Write a sequence for this structure.
């Protein structure tokens, strides 16, 4: 006799997300998102310095999550998407 | 004008008779239903009357005799030379749905299935008045029955639908009809335990296969509809139905009576205040620490004594495990995926226990939080996934003992991290007795802990000797004055952050702590929920 079990999962068909197309070069507006872990500012400051040296002409915009313990609020995600061409999200400690 | 009488609408059904005909109820005209079984002598008295009613009134109303055993039904038809339809309810689903305890049970219904009258057993006057009622309804001549030859009263027999074992099966079937989760059919000869491991559905230990029968049985533990959505579970933000809770509760090894606790715990866990997304995703090792209060502790046989925080108790072990399996299977929290604790801890399998309220000198946790003592309540804390013990075998006063507990609490997170959030202090009975002898309140215990753990700011600053600590900028200070450096900083932001309960064996001068994670609005706050009362 065939055994039957009840599905314990949320039954979502797995969706494979495709990555956004790679631009090949960095240009335009670059968002640096600090997730609000300690010393995130240290890491981000350094990243901003290095980017400015290596890719002159780009515009760097800084963002920060209210807390690292929760996903970024919808409003912040929308703002970053509207105002940036690239995002670097970084963890620090 | 008289108000029309309120009538109950009877469950509709379709059954076959012994001759193979199909009968659906309601029939569109008045009907007399009578549930019987062959080995009931009182049903034997009723059968000739039912046949007489069928002959006399059959042109105007339907007399449907409903038998509870397939073979017995045929016997009754032959024994009483019945021409009246005998419907087969040997599956007992209709008997169960009608909710009576004994046979014969007689129900007179109108054409839309509204119940007009009902009685059980054999009371001669009932049957006689029923006969007159039907004659009046139909305008047909009542059959000629020698009422005086019939006994005045005979008790009915137990309905087969309420026999032990059968009632539980019927209950499960009735609930099973409202289940809608996807069924997974295994291949021929496939090992169900290996299948569950391979599909990543377990926490690393074997699970009980959630067959439809077991899930239906689990659902008998709640009155709530299996389709009810009780929460949205992060990180996948998946809707959580009662049925999905039941599936995972089966897998965890729960009994149906535990289900309301699992449901309440998940409702608490999936709140914004609790922030389960963060509790699961943190690289620290946090988990929902589940504490149960109120009468349900005894009903479920929860452990609150020896080994309360350990293993060996089915409800303690499986309630906490069921919550974690739901977070994994429905919410999508899996180690290495969204669940990212660097080290984890064994408490991530399950952490659930009860407070020994009767052994505590204080109000129980749920009463402190505004519930009534006789309510059953679950409280969830987002804390370290494992307890740590504090020994004190020599203090004989509350003042001395609580100082020990405080020094033990100082290690939470890091000794140089102060202004901490919530922790849970589990005081053992022997320690509780020592504190109770001096009649200390919980508030006194909390204040004493804050007193002994407060440290001057200078001891808490990160330095070359120990890089962890609280940076000055956290206090908005650039260049500290000597007075500022001597300012004493309490271990906990607020004394209220020290949650206190009593549990554990009666021998052993040890208490235990669950250290915190990021606490409050920026992290996780403890949440309490009342547990559904089930009979």
């Amino acid at each position: 006799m065939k055994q039957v079990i009840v599905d314990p999962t949320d039954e979502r068909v797995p969706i494979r997300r495709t990555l956004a197309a790679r631009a090949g070069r960095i240009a335009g507006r670059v968002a640096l998102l600090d997730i609000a872990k300690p010393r995130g500012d240290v890491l981000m400051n350094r990243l901003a310095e290095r980017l400015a040296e290596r890719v002159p002409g780009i515009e760097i915009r800084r963002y920060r999550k209210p807390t690292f313990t929760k996903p970024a609020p919808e409003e912040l995600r929308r703002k970053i998407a509207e105002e940036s061409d690239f995002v670097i999200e970084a963890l620090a400690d | 004008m008289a108000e029309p009488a309120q009538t109950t609408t009877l469950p509709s059904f379709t059954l076959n008779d012994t001759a193979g005909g199909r009968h659906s109820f309601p029939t569109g005209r008045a009907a007399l239903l009578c549930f019987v079984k062959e080995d009931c002598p009182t049903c034997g008295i009723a059968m000739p009357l039912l046949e007489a009613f069928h002959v006399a009134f059959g042109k105007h109303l339907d007399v449907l005799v409903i038998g509870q055993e397939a073979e017995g039904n045929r016997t009754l038809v032959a024994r009483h030379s019945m021409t009246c339809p005998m419907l087969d309810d040997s599956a007992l689903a209709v008997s169960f749905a009608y909710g009576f305890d004994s046979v014969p049970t007689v129900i007179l219904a109108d054409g839309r299935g509204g119940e007009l009258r009902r009685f059980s057993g054999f009371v001669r006057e009932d049957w006689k008045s029923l006969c007159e009622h039907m004659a009046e309804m139909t305008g047909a001549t009542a059959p000629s029955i020698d009422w005086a030859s019939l006994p005045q009263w005979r008790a009915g027999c137990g309905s087969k639908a309420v026999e032990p074992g059968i009632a539980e099966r019927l209950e499960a079937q009735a609930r099973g009809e409202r289940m809608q989760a996807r069924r997974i059919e295994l291949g021929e000869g496939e090992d169900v335990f290996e299948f569950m491991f391979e599909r990543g559905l377990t926490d690393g230990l074997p699970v009980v296969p959630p067959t439809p029968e077991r899930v239906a049985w689990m659902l008998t533990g709640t009155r709530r509809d299996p389709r009810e959505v009780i929460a949205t579970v992060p990180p996948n933000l998946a809707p959580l139905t009662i049925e999905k809770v039941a599936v995972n509760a089966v897998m965890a090894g729960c009994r149906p009576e535990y289900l309301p606790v699992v449901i309440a715990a998940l409702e608490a866990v999936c709140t914004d205040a609790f922030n389960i997304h963060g509790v699961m995703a943190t690289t620290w090792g946090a988990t929902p620490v589940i504490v149960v209060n109120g009468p349900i502790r005894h009903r479920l046989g929860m452990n609150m004594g020896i080994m309360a925080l350990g293993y060996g108790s089915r409800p303690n072990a499986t309630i906490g495990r069921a919550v974690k399996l739901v977070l994994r299977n429905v919410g999508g929290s899996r180690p290495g995926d969204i669940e990212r604790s660097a080290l984890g801890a064994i408490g991530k399998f399950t952490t659930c226990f009860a407070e020994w309220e009767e052994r505590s000198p204080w109000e129980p946790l749920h009463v402190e939080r505004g519930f009534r003592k006789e309510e059953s309540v679950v409280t969830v804390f987002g804390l370290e996934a494992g307890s740590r013990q504090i020994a004190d075998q020599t203090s004989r006063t509350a003042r001395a003992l609580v100082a020990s507990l405080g020094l033990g609490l100082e290690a939470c997170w890091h000794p140089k991290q102060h202004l901490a959030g919530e922790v849970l202090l589990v005081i053992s009975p022997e320690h509780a007795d020592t504190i109770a002898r001096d009649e200390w309140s919980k508030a006194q215990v909390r204040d004493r802990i804050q007193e002994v753990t407060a440290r001057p700011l200078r001891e808490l600053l990160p330095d070359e000797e120990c890089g962890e600590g609280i940076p000055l900028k956290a206090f908005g200070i650039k260049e500290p004055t000597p007075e500022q450096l001597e300012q004493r900083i309490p271990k906990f932001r607020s004394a209220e952050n020290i949650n206190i309960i009593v549990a554990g064996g009666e021998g052993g001068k040890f208490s235990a702590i669950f250290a915190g994670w990021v606490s409050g609005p920026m992290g996780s706050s403890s949440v309490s929920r009342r547990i559904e009362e089930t009979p």
In short: Chain B touches chain A through 43 residues (CB under 8 Å). The mean pLDDT of chain B is 93. The first helix of chain B runs from residue 41 to 57. The two ends of chain B are 42 Å apart (CA to CA).
